[in-house]
């Protein structure tokens, strides 16, 4: 006997509302999950879990749903709200600020910042840091990571600058092909109207941000916030004095960093050094 479909709770959150609207539109169109899976090129099981809010929608699914159901931008607009619920509560405030920021400055000491990670690079990181997680759980983490990157594709994206320790570039994550693709993405971002990427070389030695990661978020009204991250936790600083101290530390590592042109050359050198 077939198990009855799980009850939906659209009043709980935008994520639940997304799932409820998906089921409603699918049933109104007389489509089974199998038929919808064929139309949007996602598995039946994945769509079933999205309907019941067990999984978050991946970034490219809302547009496909709007196209299949002829719903204009309904699912795209709903996803714009629901995606902020993907992240655990302790990170949600940081994500809300990141989505509103007009200037984002990042220092990364060990891995490429999430805002510019490729899908395969992110997947490799989540697999190694969550060895007991199921493949479905890993894919949900990857979807959450990629959803953050939508703000860089907005009509008016924030200005983004990054200083990467040379260790970020030299330590291969995933396969050589994964790392090569990630470095290619960084090369494209080195010096554009809205992005700047620089490398802090090993030759510089010690500095004030050694051992961690820092994100500075500046709003339209010039208010600023700082977020420090360790292996599995982070701290948001809102006190102006604490933020200014971290802004000064970032200014110094940026001053010590290679120029964009030198940075691009280092990325290319690192790509060439990867095994084929």
Written account of the structure:
With 276 residues, the chain is α/β, with parallel strands linked by helices. The protein folds into 2 domains: 14-84, 434 Repressor (Amino-terminal Domain), CATH 1.10.260; 88-273, Endonuclease, Chain A (2-Layer Sandwich). The protein is 49% helix and 13% strand. It has 12 helices and 6 strands. Strands 3-2-1-4-5-6 form a 6-stranded mixed beta sheet, with helices on both faces. The protein is globular and about 65 Å long. 33% of the residues are buried. The model has no long low-confidence stretch (mean pLDDT 90).
Query: Major sheet: order of its strands?
Result: 3-2-1-4-5-6
How many individual helices?
Answer: 12
Q: Summarize the main sheet.
A: 6 strands, mixed
Contiguous low-pLDDT stretches (5 residues minimum) are none
Task: Please give a handful of descriptors for the protein shown.
alpha/beta, 434 Repressor (Amino-terminal Domain), Endonuclease, Chain A, 12 helices, XRE family transcriptional regulator, Lambda_DNA-bd_dom_sf, DUF5753, Cro/C1-type_HTH, DNA binding
Give a topology summary.
Blueprint: H1 14-28, H2 33-40, H3 44-51, H4 61-69, H5 74-82, H6 89-100, E1 103-108, H7 119-129, H8 135-148, E2 159-165, H9 166-170, H10 176-189, E3 195-200, E4 213-218, E5 224-229, E6 234-237, H11 240-256, H12 260-273
Parallel strand pairs: 1-2, 2-3
Antiparallel strand pairs: 1-4, 4-5, 5-6
InterPro entries: Cro/C1-type_HTH (IPR001387), DUF5753 (IPR043917), Lambda_DNA-bd_dom_sf (IPR010982)
GO molecular function: DNA binding
Organism: Streptomyces klenkii
